[in-house]
Amino acid sequence: MKINKNIIPLFTFLTFFAVACSNNANIAAIVNGTKITKKTYEGTLDNLISQQKQKNPKFVDNEQTRLLLGKMALEQIITNEVLSQEAQKAKITVKDEAVDQNISNLKKLIAVDQNGKAITDKKQIEEKFNEKLKTDGITLKQLRENIHKELSAKLFLKDLSDKQKIELTEDVLTRFYDATMAVVDNNQSKIKSLPKEDLALVNPFAMEVKKATSERVAVSTVFLSTPKTMSNTEIANKKNLANKIVQELKDKKIAFIQAIQTYSDDKNALKTNGEQIVIRGILPKNLNDKIFEAPLGKVIGPITEQEGIYILRVNEKRAANTLTYNQLRNSIINYLDPIQLRQKVQQQVKDLVQKSKIEILLPEYQVNNIKQDTK
Question: For 18-45, how does the pLDDT look when each residue is reduced to its tens digit (9 = 90+)?
């Protein structure tokens, strides 16, 4: 069941920059005779860096990360160009309406004022858009051509995907099931025998199966936080409050959901009507044991843990169960089918790139470049 995980990026991020240029000094790469400008490369790299900054506040924009992301940007641009050329060979057409819609979306992205507020005035939107075109040194015609390339590449990729036939044999399915159950049961000997690629593939599915089959309880919780910065007096007051809440709940002076609303420092349970699902083994042992040993409907606590004080009521219990291969078979197919489809398409795209004549003209990538001229 070893799966090829050789993933390649399929699309560049759409930029305003033109592709055609006659001066080789301004060229980043040449793909089957089509020149990719440095400006296109730099714009795609800047987009990648911006994305990384949004995802990771600790992202450092330095020479090393620029080299790594630059290689990724170059791969994206080259792959996208190859796909666009293949789309042209396949006579795939892109409707003008689709290009218009993309331009409209771009206008919305850039139509913001200095405070980040969306501009609604049509005249101001057009001014912002034209200003962006001028700054990037591109005409509206060139922008439409670039968008056309992007969309044609996507359509070609969809067409490629639609033509694939995925065949999952019973052997693949049963081995995936066995690997899943090894993870669910924490069978270390079997887990260690699995290839890393298979384990990475199985883990997300196994976690969902574990959630669905593990012993669980539905529990209502009032949580009083006692951080390390809290004084002894404040902690004592919290403990007194916890005792008061327990008594009010036992005397039925207050409903549990009202206690959560009024007293709890964690209001997340209110999103699910004051009740949360707890799987055995997830919580600290002391808290876990008390929850799973508690009688149904009985208020338990206060339970003091390092992070705070818990007051609980178990509303429902469900014993652990096991799902058979036949019960999971369709779910396994639904999980593996899109993964194998994506991997198959990615391999075909990689093959198309490898068959292309590609010259890398950026000095920093000419030694360990993506693919130099092989013809």
Answer: 344 445 678 999 999 999 989 889 888 9
pTM given for the model: 0.67
| pLDDT tens sequence across 104-163 | 999 988 888 877 788 888 898 898 889 888 887 788 998 898 899 999 999 999 999 999
Q: 116's torsion region: left (phi>0), alpha (psi -120 to 50) or beta? A: left
Tell the burial category of 145 from Cβ atoms under 10 Å away from its Cβ (0-12, 13-18, 19+): middle
φ/ψ of residue 221, rounded to 5: -140, 135
Q: Which residue type is seen at 161?
A: S
Q: How far, CA to CA in Å, does 9 sit from each of 69, 103, 148, 337? A: 12, 23, 19, 20
What one-character DSSP code corresponds to residue 118? B
Residue 129 CA to residue 136 CA, distance in Å, equals 11
What pLDDT, in 10s, does the model give residues 185-209?
889 999 999 999 999 999 999 999 9
Burial class (CB in 10 A: 0-12, 13-18, 19+), 290: middle
Distance CA(202)–CA(192), nearest Å, equals 13
Residue with tokens 């969902």: 208
Distance CA 15, CA 106 (A): 10
* Amino acid found at 175: R
Which two tokens mark 317?
A: 């219990």
* Structural domains in the chain, sorted by start: 24-163+338-365 (1.10.4030.10), 170-210+323-334 (no CATH), 216-318 (3.10.50.40)
- Token pair recorded at residue 271: 């999103």
What would the mean pLDDT of 250-258 be, rounded to a whole number? 92
> What ranges make up the beta strands (E) of 261-307?
276-279, 299-305
Q: Are 94 and 152 in contact (CB under 8 A)?
A: yes
Distance CA 373, CA 185 (A): 51
DSSP state of 112: B
Model pLDDT, residue 14: 40
